[in-house]
Amino acid sequence: MLFDSHCHLNSDQFDDAAVAQLVETAKEHGVTCMTVPGYDMKSSARAVELADRWPELYAAVGIHPNDANGATEEMYDQLREWAKHPRVVAIGEIGLDYYWDTTPKEVQFEVFRRQIHLAKEVKLPIVIHDRDAHGDIVRILREEAAKEVGGIMHCFSGSWEMAKDCMDMNFMISMGGPVTFKNAKRPQEVASKVPSDYLLVETDSPYLTPEPFRGKSNQPAYVRYVAEKIAELRGMGLAEIMQITTHNAERIFGIVHQTGVKQEG
């Protein structure tokens, strides 16, 4: 079985019928669990709703850096309330994004720090969005002692040196579709070196579709192609990568697979 640690089935382009089909197709390809992260209040609410309705789905809730403008105390209170839900397994996706010039860095810093504080308060791991902000991500995680809860570096795009810094702070390294791209030297280096107990796989669907479907809409079923590429890079069997990454996802999210119940603390 496989665990897609990050897929946006809460995207506006997926109605209930589409979600049902995507989940069924994923199961046919051996993908039995998926985490759906929020990126604003609407998508976080949708993630919780979907996790309530499909036993294969879990939710994360959070405010993405591109949606950080206008964050209010009421929003943080709502995230705190959602965090009590048994199907909510992380705070995220949160972090920094310097690619899109939509939110001042100072605002991104403040909202990022507040959500790290919240994650520590509710004792949930953090799902990190990092785009062109590697140095500041590591600095803030270190300054805020995020190691206390740890989490996931979603669709990791940094260097091997950064990966080591993140793992030292109890963050897992999640590889997505880009690791399958022909010229993806840095992701492939990282995927080949990450210790087995820090490795995760994801799709970030409907984005970042892996080969051989690049250019089409991504879906959780395609996480298998990410796992296959990593198995090839590491000289391991696919079944072993599937087992390792599923166990790691269950561990970081505090999920007991047999019961689908979140572990306490």
The number of distinct β-strands equals: 10
Radius of gyration: 17 Å
CATH architecture: Alpha-Beta Barrel
- Give the overall form: globular
Query: What profile does the largest beta sheet have?
Result: 8 strands, parallel
Helix content, binned percent: 40-55%
Topology:
Elements lengths: L1 E3 L11 H13 L2 E7 L3 H13 L3 E5 L11 H10 L5 E10 L7 H18 L3 E6 L2 H10 L7 E3 L6 H9 L2 E5 L9 H9 L5 E3 L21 H12 L3 H16 L1 E2 L4 E2 L3
Parallel strand pairs: 1-2, 2-3, 3-4, 4-5, 5-6, 6-7, 7-8
Antiparallel strand pairs: 9-10
Explain what this protein looks like in three dimensions.
This protein is an alpha/beta fold and 265 residues long. The chain has helices at residues 16-28, 41-53, 73-82, 105-122, 134-143, 160-168, 185-193, 223-234, 238-253; strands at 2-4, 31-37, 57-61, 88-97, 126-131, 151-153, 171-175, 199-201, 255-256, 261-262. 50% of the residues are buried. The protein is globular and about 45 Å long.
